[in-house]
Specification:
The chain is of the alpha+beta class. It is built from 11 helices and 14 strands. The strands form 5 sheets. The protein has a 4-stranded mixed β-sheet with strand order 2-11-10-9, with no helix packed on it. Strands 5-6-8-7 form a 4-stranded antiparallel β-sheet, with helices on one face. A hairpin with a 2-residue loop joins β13 and β14.
Length: 392
Amino acid sequence: MARPASWFREVGAIPLLILAILPTSCDPGRQSGDQADDPATLTLLLDQDETLMRPAMDEEEKFLVFLPMAKQREDGELEGRLARSWERSEDNRIWTYHLRTDVRWHDGVPVTAQDVVFTMKLLSDSAVAYYPPGAVTAAALDDSTVVFEYARETAINPVTTTWWTSFLPRHLLEDLDPDSINSWDFWSQPVGNGPYRYARHLPKTMMELEANPDYYAGPPDIQRVILRFGPLSLLELQAGNVDVVPYVGATESTALLADPDFRVFHSINGLHGRLLVWDNRNPLFQDARVRWALTLALNRREILQAMDLPDFVPIADGPYTGRQLSKGDLPDPIPYDVAEAERLLFEAGWRDEDGDGIRDRAGVPFRFNLVLAEGADGEHMAVMIQEYLSRV
């Protein structure tokens, strides 16, 4: 069943998934259940239950029902949602948001700055601890203006707070006890302000959401979203029981890449990085030419391919920002160049003087230990690194 690839962006609901697989053709034989042959319904398979919108769960599906202040676009820039505009202080500690005045909760009550202040106070409560108590405070200047102030010593990123916090209705929740927040009935029948509103749910089975006709940006094209709960399974997708399976590993998805009935979406931000660090305290690595040579000797793209990671996974030789990553604006990595690696090692005095196949200098062989991350990936990488370095 065809789904617009831009759907996630258009409704501002779900940030890019680590790996989402969608069917791309409508075949009655691949569909079953209530959503059969219904192009206005999207069914997601989630390894959760109907309480997935609790703050402790911190799942991205919450943005189907609740609005963040802004959404982070694919280029890393912020685009307003609940906030129509904002400004921040030079030291990045004080953020002032100007809220839209045409956003209402799904029960018709207008959304105000008091809802935002209530939410931040609730999330900072010691019983909830979504944010460390005292790390960020919120104050309403009027019904449509709210100021966030971050403590000087905090690990909270204001940009992440802007696009990852979902705000809650004060008029429905202010009398509830934060100590029992995880058992509130509200989470299984949420009242939000986003593009979809709660329709029904079956405990531990599914939650149905319907397009919000009162959404400030207009109702989304997909009229119904079904969040189906259960173990993530490509078999469910291939059988046509669901339309989207998120968070599938790259290896698992390989079989579907060549199948025209499915489409695979990748997210760079969702990939875990593999880091190789030379310990400069080791006398072998104190010469920059040696460190450069060892990096030149590694075909890192081939290593990533051997681990079934897609070709767009970036390779970098230094720190970079999330915005650089989103924009694809990373410096060119050190290339794979065996000849240059050998030249630099020779220039640094590391030569095979005794003909045993191992470089040495002043009688000291170039030999070191590699400390691995746990798991098969680390061992696989170590074997490949050893093979590449043996060539120089």
